């Protein structure tokens, strides 16, 4: 497991240019419309409330579209990601839009050392982040360390049940093929492609990933001094996570099971306060 960071970093580094060029990240939309925000953040605007003036940090920010979106909503944002190319792209993107956002290249577990303890009113983490981390307890300790007393964690993430199921057995069949709970050893994947539209063929396709049960996530946060204030499960995600079995909603662009979407929690929004 010692090489998981470098292995995963190579995969993410390689995909940065393809993601920035993909129409799914909508960088041109941001440039055309000063009020435009990402679909991920827009989905949760009613839950976020007013973030004006809050000192916020977006952990595992990738190329910064959600970070920029929170800044456009009035938060004073920082971003952190372990990928150098992703941080370079995020800085360039924010500069193009005329936004003052400080971006830092670092592993998420080093965030308190890099950014400062008890420095933030808001810690934001978005879809597809936690699965790259082997220990949810260590992540919760990091979040707690970053937040001021009374500060808030805002997390929108793929549901651990979604990560546990597979649609590979047939067009109408969902099977529980992968761990739901955190395991010591990672799930090892060797898959080309990526989650956005692109014609690019990638060379670095092996990744190490982990699932974390919903109870494990909540328990970790509670054990590190956070108080759960909201937990909402959703039947949708921002991309077709189960190809061939999901339909896109025209209003929000989210994807849910075509057949009986109530069968599967696909994502969740969690909020917690630092005591």
UniProtKB/TrEMBL annotation:
Pfam families named in the record: Methyltransf_12 (PF08242)
Keywords (A to Z) from UniProt: Methyltransferase, Transferase
Example GO BP: methylation
MF annotations from Gene Ontology: methyltransferase activity
Transmembrane segments: none
Superkingdom to which the source organism belongs: Bacteria
Keyword Acetylation annotated: no
Domain Methyltransferase type: 58-153
Name of this chain's protein: Methyltransferase type 12
Taxonomic lineage: Bacteria, Bacillati, Actinomycetota, Actinomycetes, Propionibacteriales
Keyword Methyltransferase: yes
């Amino acid at each position: 497991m010692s090489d998981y960071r470098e292995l995963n970093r190579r995969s993410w580094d390689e995909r940065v240019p393809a993601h920035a060029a993909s129409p799914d990240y909508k960088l041109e939309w941001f440039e055309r419309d000063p009020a435009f925000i990402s679909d991920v953040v827009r989905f949760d605007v009613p839950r976020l409330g007013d973030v004006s003036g809050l000192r916020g940090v977006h952990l595992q920010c990738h190329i910064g579209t959600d970070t920029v979106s929170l800044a456009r909503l009035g938060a004073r944002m920082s971003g952190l990601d372990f990928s150098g190319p992703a941080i370079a792209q995020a800085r360039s993107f924010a500069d193009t839009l005329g936004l003052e956002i400080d971006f830092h290249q670092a592993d998420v577990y080093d965030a308190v050392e890099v950014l400062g303890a008890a420095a933030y009113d808001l810690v934001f983490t978005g879809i597809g982040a936690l699965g790259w981390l082997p220990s949810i307890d260590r992540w919760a300790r990091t979040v707690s360390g970053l937040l001021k007393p009374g500060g808030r964690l805002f997390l929108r993430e793929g549901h651990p049940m979604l990560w546990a199921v597979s649609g590979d057995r047939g067009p109408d069949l969902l099977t529980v093929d992968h761990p739901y709970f955190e395991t010591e050893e990672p799930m090892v994947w060797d898959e080309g492609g990526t989650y956005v539209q692109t014609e690019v063929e990638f060379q670095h396709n092996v990744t190490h990933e982990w699932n974390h049960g919903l109870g494990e996530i909540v328990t970790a946060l509670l054990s590190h001094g956070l108080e759960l204030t909201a937990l909402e499960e959703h039947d949708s995600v921002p991309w077709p996570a189960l190809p061939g079995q999901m339909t896109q909603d025209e209003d929000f662009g989210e994807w849910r099971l075509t057949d009986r979407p109530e069968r599967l929690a696909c994502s969740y929004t969690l909020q917690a306060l630092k005591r």
